[in-house]
Amino acid sequence: MDSANLDPALQAWAVSDADFPKDGDPESTLRFLLRYAILAPSGHNTQPWLFAVGDGAIGLYADRTRALPVVDPDDRELTISCGAALETLLVAMRHFGHRGTVWLAPDPDDEDLLARVALGDGEPPGRDEEELFGGIPRRHSNRQAFEDRDIPGVLADRLVADAEMHGAWLCLVRGDGRAAVADLVAEGDRAQMADKRFRRELAAWVHPNRSRSHDGMRGYGFGFGDLMSHGGPLAIRAFDLGKGQAAKDRELAQGSPLLAVLGTAADDPASWLRSGRALQRVLLRARTNDVWSSYLNQPIEVDALRPRLADVIGRAGQFPQLIVRLGYGVEVKPQPRRPLEAVILGAEAGGQP
Ligand SMILES: Cc1cc2nc3c(=O)[nH]c(=O)nc-3n(C[C@H](O)[C@H](O)[C@H](O)COP(=O)(O)O)c2cc1C
Fold first, then answer.
1. What is the residue with the minimal CA distance to atom 15 of ligand 1?
2. What is the distance of C-alpha 64 from the center of its chain?
3. Are residues 163 and 121 in the same domain?
4. Are residues 104 and 174 in the same domain?
5. Which of 1, 233, 238, 288 is a good FRET partner for 177, with 20 to 30 A between their CA atoms?
């Protein structure tokens, strides 16, 4: 990516190996590694994370001021997003020759401190992590329809194994299950779009294509041209577009080469963080194999539909966390990221693990 021509809010995507501070102290190494972590996906691109760098470690904090109280009242997706950032950080650490040592929920008195990560011992990167690393700057959510082209079975199996590595499961939805899940997605769309509060919250995070905002989603992510991207937020706020959205998403769900539900046996912050780590492994593995990804989480976000989704996919009593569709498609533009300075807290808060 030619960083000279980049819009400041997209600069983050121009991160390069060549800028690694080879003779830097641990603090500058950790700061550099965060340039990869912030490329993780997050609900509505809220980027709900903060990092404290100090004493040779990074503290990962949930930034609950960036919560989405309507679509995500329990901070479930917020925690998943932080899990995705954590996994990205660890993959980057491995690439640059450190094993990474992680303490999860290290302070029982601070539920916002989700993890602490130190560089750990030196260790040359393995092939597996290297493959994931290559996907970090190439991964973007791609909401377009995908090509009618199968994903190789070996890759699909690999994605399942990637999710399992963090104690989550990835259920590949095939056969009749596909139509049933697509129906639930459509039902979720109708329920969400009929809710003014949901629409208002979504509209607040959808921005015109030429916006200077460093967070939220620019209209091009939804296929809006420049002009339409100006009216998009207004239309979302003012009208119940549920019927049209439901029809579109049903088709996307049914037509995706791979439709998968990622879930866990429990539904608590530790499981959400694990889900985020599993999600990012799946997305990075997919992307490095030229496969794009996107989400259809509506049946999980609407409370009444979540157990029905678990039933339909044969996981009654368990907890679906995300619905992901994967496939080959056209290149899409990245979404903005906040600058590193905006997400790093004072070093003194990092503390010793
Ligand atoms: C936990 C989580 C939930 C998400 N839910 C949705 C969703 O329901 N629909 C959607 O279109 N995108 C969803 N996304 C994608 C985000 O909108 C996207 O990651 C964000 O806008 C940043 O863009 P990027 O993924 O291209 O970097 C979700 C992402 C995460 C991590």
1. 43
2. 16
3. no
4. no
5. 288
